[in-house]
Amino acid sequence: MRWKSYTARIRALLRRHNNQGESELIVGNLTLNMGRRQVWMSGEELILTPKEYALLSRLMLKAGSPVHREILYNDIYNWDNEPSTNTLEVHIHNLRDKVGKARIRTVRGFGYMLVANEEN
């Protein structure tokens, strides 16, 4: 119950944030336009699926901080649609291919974190 109310609050905050016009998130060379739902990396537009966009926007909102996998999972799936267990990992893998593998770090036993620049 606790996670359900927490994610509902986050979704409400995101909706309010999205309604403020052409808000942009910038992390390193990544720019995400929340009004247009577009993402650019070094000035070139990235084509993302809706689930990849949802994951990247959450990671960019919390850049530099780990995001729990359950929060990410709830961003891309509703409670009625229960996918197989590794779908989050597959979407993260595909997103890493587009933004750079080292940009999205696995925080073992917790979730994932976006860093500003690729570092080995």
UniProtKB/TrEMBL annotation:
<dbReference type="GO" id="GO:0006355">
    <property type="term" value="P:regulation of DNA-templated transcription"/>
</dbReference>
<keyword id="KW-0804">Transcription</keyword>
<dbReference type="GO" id="GO:0005829">
    <property type="term" value="C:cytosol"/>
</dbReference>
<dbReference type="InterPro" id="IPR001867">
    <property type="entry name" value="OmpR/PhoB-type_DNA-bd"/>
</dbReference>
<dbReference type="GO" id="GO:0032993">
    <property type="term" value="C:protein-DNA complex"/>
</dbReference>
<keyword id="KW-0238">DNA-binding</keyword>
<keyword id="KW-0597">Phosphoprotein</keyword>
<feature type="domain" description="OmpR/PhoB-type">
    <location>
        <begin position="22"/>
        <end position="116"/>
    </location>
</feature>
<dbReference type="InterPro" id="IPR039420">
    <property type="entry name" value="WalR-like"/>
</dbReference>
<keyword id="KW-0805">Transcription regulation</keyword>
<keyword id="KW-0902">Two-component regulatory system</keyword>
<feature type="DNA-binding region" description="OmpR/PhoB-type">
    <location>
        <begin position="22"/>
        <end position="116"/>
    </location>
</feature>
<dbReference type="InterPro" id="IPR036388">
    <property type="entry name" value="WH-like_DNA-bd_sf"/>
</dbReference>
<keyword id="KW-0010">Activator</keyword>
<dbReference type="GO" id="GO:0000156">
    <property type="term" value="F:phosphorelay response regulator activity"/>
</dbReference>
<dbReference type="InterPro" id="IPR016032">
    <property type="entry name" value="Sig_transdc_resp-reg_C-effctor"/>
</dbReference>
<dbReference type="Pfam" id="PF00486">
    <property type="entry name" value="Trans_reg_C"/>
</dbReference>
<protein>
    <submittedName>
        <fullName>DNA-binding transcriptional regulator BasR</fullName>
    </submittedName>
</protein>
<dbReference type="GO" id="GO:0000976">
    <property type="term" value="F:transcription cis-regulatory region binding"/>
</dbReference>
